[in-house]
Amino acid sequence: MAGESERRLQELVDGLPDQVEGWRRGDAEFYGPDDLYRYINGGAELFIAYQFTSVVSQPYVDVNDDEIRLDVFDMGAPSSAFGVFSHSRESVDRFVAPDAESEYAGGLLHFWKGRYYGSALAYPETETKKAMIRELARRITDRIEGDCRWPDVVAILPVTDLVPDSIRYFRHRAWINDFHHFADENLLNIGADTEVAMARVRTEAGEAPPAVLVAIRYPSAATAAEATAQFTQALLPGTADGLRQESDDTWLGCLHSDDIVVIVAEAPDRKTAKGLLEACERSRDHVRRGGHDDE
User: Fold this and answer.
1) What is the pTM of this model?
2) Which stretch of DSSP H or E encloses residue 278?
3) How far is Cα 142 from Cα 158, in angstroms, rounded to an integer?
C-alpha cells in the first residue's frame, strides 16, 4: 500500500517544472506514518489521526538557498483529505483552481482534491512566491483524479444557517470538544469507525452566539444506541425528550435514529434546540434517500 501510494505521489511531483522564476527543484522526500515525526515536529498527530498513507515533500531552492516546500499527502480517502483541510481553515477560496478547495493567506496555502491534501509555505510573502506556489499547486491538482465532494454525513447539518466555513469532519475523539466542551471522557465512543461532522449554526434568537451541531454516523444502529445511552446518562439524565437547560441557560440536546446521532449545544432556548435536531433528522432522511459514499 505505501509503495503504491509513493508511486502515485512521485507521478504527481514529476509533473512539476525543474525551474520556476529562478527557483530550482530539489530532491523529493517521502514519509509515512512511522517516520512523519522526523519531518513535522509536533504536527504529525493530525495526519496520523486521519490515517494518511504517505506524503511527498518537494523543495524548491533559489540562489540564496532560500527554500519553498510543497507537501502533498495521500490521505487514503477523499473524506480524510477534506477532514484535514477542514480542521484549521477559516475560509475557502478557489485560489488554486476552480475544481479544488483551497485557502491562501499571508504566504500559507492549503488545498485538497480527491484523496490528496496539499500545503505550501512561501514566507515572507512576495508576489513571486505567491504566484509560484499557486502554479505548483495548480499543476498538482490538474493531475489529481476526483473532485471536492464532501462526506455524506456533512449533509445532515442544515446548510442554510451554518456559519460559513465552520464545518469540521473527523474520526477521532480529540476534536469533539473544539467548539463546545462536552466531557473529558469519550462519551460518544468516537473512533476510527465513526464519522463526525460538526459546525456552528446561527439561530433566530437575536444576538445569541451560534449554536453547535454535531452529526455522528456509527457503523451500526446498535453502536449508535450504545453511544446515545452513555451520553444521555452522563449529560442528559432524567430527560424525557433528550433536551436539557445547562447552567449557563443554553440548551443541550441529543437525537438518535438508526446509525445516526445528532447533538445540539449552546442553543439559546428549548424551541431552537428541538428545531435544529429536527432539521438534522429531515436532512438525514434526504441523505438516506439519495446519498452517496465518497469512499
Assistant:
1) 0.91
2) helix 270-290
3) 32
> Which residues are CB-contacts of 93 (< 8 A; sequence separation ≥ 6)?
102, 103, 104
Residue 61, strand partner residues: 24, 67
| Stronger pLDDT, 164 or 56, i.e. the higher one | 56
Mean pLDDT of 184-191: 96
Residue appearing with cell numbers 527554500? 67
Q: What's the chain's average pLDDT?
A: 92
> What is the structure's pLDDT at 43?
86
Instruction: Measure CA of the first residue to CA of the last residue in the chain; give whole Å.
Output: 16
The position carrying cell 483551497 is 102
Q: Quick one: DSSP state of residue 106?
A: T
- Which amino acid, residue 91? S
293 in the Ramachandran plot: left (φ > 0), alpha (ψ -120 to 50) or beta? beta
Nearest-angstrom CA–CA distance, 231 and 235: 6
* Percent of the chain's residues with pLDDT above 90: 81
Domains of the chain: 2-142 (3.40.1000), 152-290 (no CATH)
Cβ distance 127 to 79 under 8 Å?
Answer: no
> How confident is the model at residue 65, as a pLDDT?
86
Judge contact between 179 and 142, C-beta under 8 A.
no
Can you tell me the mean pLDDT for 174-197? 96
Which phi and psi angles does 270 have, rounded to 5°? -60, -45
